Amino acid sequence: MSDQEEEYPNDMEERLNELEAAVHDAKTAAIAARNLAVGWSTECDSMLTRIGALERALAKAGIVVSD
Predict the structure, then answer these.
(1) Residue 49 within any structural domain of the chain
(2) Tens of pLDDT along 6-44?
(3) What is the total count of domains within the chain?
């Protein structure tokens, strides 16, 4: 087995870990943004719409966003 073949699984695991961290960050950001925007006036309607779109996109990917 070549060195490149031996390194491949480690590279894949590193990439998976980075993806999982990014998903966690997206979920955390969605929760924080929703909690912040809910307390504001109607000026935040567009923000809430965008947050909802992010939450739906995450849900389509099988990622549940809950606070």
Answers:
(1) yes
(2) 566 778 788 888 888 888 888 888 888 777 777 666 566
(3) 1
